[in-house]
Design goal:
- The protein is an alpha/beta fold and 316 residues long.
- It has 13 helices and 13 strands.
- Helix 3 (56-61) links the parallel strand 3 and strand 4.
- InterPro entries: D-iso_2-hydroxyacid_DH_PdxB, D-isomer_2_OHA_DH_cat_dom, D-isomer_DH_CS1, D-isomer_DH_NAD-bd, NAD(P)-bd_dom_sf.
- This is D-2-hydroxyacid dehydrogenase.
- It comes from Aquimarina mytili.
- Belongs to the D-isomer specific 2-hydroxyacid dehydrogenase family.
């Protein structure tokens, strides 16, 4: 049986599949050529990340397909319910990348409260001629310790982010319409562990009381954070989105940054991927990464292995 990893898969995943007799193809096939490629090569398993879309055209016209796999959490690029109605198995890896995304959130947070994203733009240009000016411009940093992090969406990634926040010494408050309470275990290098219990509160309470916000929600029709929500936040608050593009109103975000209502933002995902708005890209109060939340070697190894294990379990 053949597996097409159209958006790539780790070598650990390839090795596990080939050991069980699967042929793994890592050719990147254009979206409009996928149906023909799958049929011509009798592909049994289609693996994707976020780039490839698996809609009804593929599901209806590729009779050899048995499994659609998403290397990651969200499956908004797959017509999941329809595929399952047609008898296909749809799998993903909800836990594999949680730690990597959480660490990226804190990379944005730490960088933003010390202006690293902007300093790294200007030091190469003016560090030799305006050193004292830059020192003054970036000298008003903020510590994370003792501040309150508002987690919007306290699923696996939200919990992984809360775990880091607690370790840093932050207070964590969370909103999630589907979860009332979570246990956050902290394991230390010497075998000790502590458990923290977080009870979720209303969205309004989180918006009014947090110093910084991190979003961990699926794609949805309405903005989770728009102008009304931003108006409820503290002046100077910071906002990180490493979840999905389109859950934050970017127009309202830029306006709030320019007006000084928000202190900074960190974005790994964008409304208009893969062509983010120029006003977002050029704003010196926004820390930017190109949708790399799960892009660590460790996470990709876990994703590949988990996908392989599920495929083998279903088809062998």
């Amino acid at each position: 049986m053949k597996v097409l990893a159209n958006d790539g898969v780790s070598q650990s995943g390839i090795d596990a599949l080939e050991k069980e007799g699967f042929e793994v193809l890592t050719t990147t096939v254009a979206q409009d050529q996928l149906v023909n490629f799958i049929n011509d090569n009798e592909i049994s398993v289609l693996l994707v990340r976020s780039a490839t879309k698996v809609r009804t055209d593929i599901i209806d016209n590729c009779p050899s397909l048995k499994i659609i796999g998403r290397g990651g959490v969200g499956m908004d690029n797959i017509d999941v319910a329809y595929a399952r109605e047609k008898g296909l198995s749809v799998i993903n890896t909800p836990a594999a990348s949680s730690g990597s995304v959480a660490e990226l959130v804190f990379a944005h947070l730490y960088g933003s409260v010390r202006f690293l994203h902007d300093s790294n733009r200007n030091m190469p240009l003016e560090g030799d001629s305006k050193f004292k000016n830059l020192k003054k411009a970036y000298g008003g940093g903020t510590e994370l310790r003792g501040k309150t992090l508002g987690v919007i969406g306290i699923g696996r990634i939200g919990q992984a982010t809360a775990k880091i926040a607690i370790g840093v010494g932050m207070n964590v408050i969370a909103y999630d319409p589907f979860i009332e309470e979570v246990d956050i275990p902290l394991e230390f290098f010497d075998g000790q562990s502590l458990n923290f219990k977080i009870k979720t509160v209303s969205k309004e309470e989180v918006l009014k009381n947090a110093d910084f916000f991190t979003l961990h929600v699926p794609a949805q029709k309405e903005y989770v954070i728009g102008k009304p929500e931003i108006e409820q936040m503290k002046d100077g608050a910071g906002l990180i989105n490493a979840a999905r593009g389109g859950v934050i109103d970017e127009v309202a975000l830029v306006e709030a940054l320019e007006a000084g209502k928000l202190g900074f933002a960190g974005l790994d995902v964008f409304e208009n991927e893969p062509s983010p708005a120029i006003k977002v890209l050029m704003n010196n109060k926004i820390s930017l990464t190109p949708h790399i939340g799960a892009a660590t070697g460790e996470a990709q190894d876990r994703i590949g292995q988990e996908l392989a294990d599920q495929i083998i379990s279903i088809l062998k």
